[in-house]
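Catalogue entry: protein

Sequence with per-residue tokens
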Amino acid sequence: MTYVFSIHRPPRPPLREPDALSPRLAAAMTGLVEKPDFPCVGAKSALAQGNLAVEPAFSVRSARDDVRIHERLVQWSRAVQAGDKGFRSLAVVFAGPIGLDERGFEAALWQRLGALTALDRAAGHRQATGFSADPDHSDFALSFGGKAYFAVGLHPNASRRARRLPFPAIVFNLHSQFKRLRAEQRYERMREVILARDEVFDGSINPMVERHGDISEARQYSGREVEGDWACPFVPGDPS
């Protein structure tokens, strides 16, 4: 006689869709920026002007939401107006994983940025004019929909307090904002204010802050204090 034993396994809970996560992800982002001593006055200005948008996503280590995130970035690029005076930031906040250390988050961040860039190239968009696609070049910048972006990574285990968010996130800032500030001769003053506030907020000077054009900005994206011989893991991958 043959006995057949079966083990009952309860069904796995369904993955929650990004829209269901949106309220708490957005609250985490705005809550950080709203702290009175949060150093980035640009982010504070964007929030005050209603120009800090939060795009919820499932996992910073998953390609699941890449197409939607890329579409949102292209829309954000198209919405730029020549006469814009305010600050605008698009924050993609992921539900997890929340246990990544700094190196783990760095790897996941560049994986997402590589995949998003591959989608942008597959859609026929060219690199933003005046910026390099080479992460080792001093004029490197991300490019989506033909516009240049600077990325800021945040996550629960960041060593810098200003980069510490309960969820992993990538904040995309248009380079055109920095160009406008330079043209208005306000960039250096704003930079000094942010650096001074960050030193007070964290208790030390941020060792990774550099001016664009002096050294590749890629070194600043993850928030980790990278080594002198650090090699950027940016590889635009297969968009499929």
In short: The radius of gyration is 19 Å.
